[in-house]
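hiii so my PI (J.) wants the whole complex modelled not just the main chain, which honestly fair. so below is everything: two entries, each one labled with what it is. i double checked the lines twice but i was tired so who knows lol
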Amino acid sequence: MTQETFTPNPTELRLGEGHGIEEEADTNLFVKEFIDLSRKLEKTRNVLHNAGNIEVGITPNEIVLDAKMYRLLHFRPMVSRTAKTPILVVYALINKSYILDLQPDKSWIRNLLSQGFDIYLIDWKTPTQVDKYVSFDDYVNSYIDDCVEFVRTKSSIDKLTLHGYCMGATMSVVYTSLHQDKIRNLATIAPVFDAEKDVTVLANFSKHIDGEKIFNSVGNLPYEQLYACYSALKPFKQGVNKYFNLVENIDNEEFVQNFLRIEKWLYDTPPIAGETFRQWVVDIYQKNLLAANEMRIGNEVVDLSKIQIPLLNIVAEEDHLVSPQCSAPLNDAVSSLDKRLMRFHTGHVGLIASSYSQNNVLPKVGQWIKARSQ
Amino acid sequence: MVIEGEVNNDRIGSNNDRGGSEAPVQTSANSDPLFMREQISKVFNLWSEISRLPTVGPLYAYSQYSRSELTELVELGKTILQLQIHFSEYWLQINNTYVHALTKAAEKAPKKYDSKQDFEDYRKAVIDVFEDEFTALFDSQEFARSYSLVLSQQLDLFNHIQKLTEKSLRVLNLPTRAEVNEMVKDVHDLKKEVHDLTRKMEAIIRNDSRNIHA
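here's the output for the full assembly
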């Protein structure tokens, strides 16, 4: 059938003569594959329509603080003796924090718990129009500081380990520069720091959009705008190809569940508070004030050279959201003598929620923090 | 009042032109077509003056109200035109990239599709080609500028519509967006102040209790 359709050359047709049985076998195989594809498509449709409630973030935890803009979660320790210094994880303002606890075998949080750490996580709530004036100053000097104070009081310790991811890592850096006396170690994952060196599509868009106008016109950044940006990130390899892969692997229950969890997270996007987004785009991406030590938070100017505590900076070589060239210079900006840059061959999400991260990233991160947590 | 005065002056002037009496006017009108033209012109001028009368008072207010709506509508029209221009440029870039990618993908098409693997390989090749082409587009400053302009014009459009709607809904006595913003800002500042005061108070209480224990 394939020869008839695609190779009308008479010479080639003659070459096929005498192979009737093989031709028939090929045709049968083709038909079989086609039927299988139809079955898979039908099953994919059913799976997607009946996905229902997808379970994420199932590591046992307790809400110890519940404010208008955030919840502070305390995870139940998994070992009897935990490290003396607790870890406060600061998640980003983009999508939801359960990516750090997506499923048991790919949970960043669970892995650190199993390594004997006492873990707290700031779970940011969705800002409403009333929160359009909530700024970096509020996030850093009010919300993160409230959580730090809570952990210090509850654990009866002076200092804790601050551990941020992506935008949360940037906020952790800013917080540390302003309140270093409360922090023992700073561990950042893919922080946005030297935006001028960021070569991602996201950075390209951020450097051109009118942050002031968005703030003045719509207040908070609508999630639709974030979707528009996401759709430009690896649009075919991730945007289109993942659905082909889903159909192909629809009989693999583990693959399907993983796909559904990631898909749920990808499209669980809250808006970003207007003033915070304006500062993020204008001050960090367009004016690169953070790297220049000129960013103003509240009444203070953020000077990263003041940071002297141990720093662990974790970057992904294939990060298409925050390029490693943007994160790595943080190590040069601080004055810490004990500082380390870890590079891993994975992507932005793969760095925190993958088998690779469980096997390669977390053991090293845990080891580094543990050595400085006693 | 001033305008009425001016109009009256004109009227006086007209009377003077006419020599202060009715009879000669009639005579002149009958005899001189130029005179008639002058009179018509004067009437038009007078109406023009009358139409400029409401610079104060309710008539003026109403005219200003409709004038600002008209200005907003004109601006809305301009923004729609601008948006169309920038949107065309934006789509042109996407379309050109799509056509370019399609041509490249066609070049990579296998001569024969003998097995499922052939389809698979071609699918991967197409995905790679499209990925490279579109990532190059999204990475370009030209596209980022286009995207930014389209977004900016959309926001302008949104603002014009919002202003027009706000004017139309004034009858409902709702607060305007600017007024709501003012309140939201005040609430935000108050919350911050309360938060900071609470923290200071807690610190004082902590210190006091330490002193008592000491």
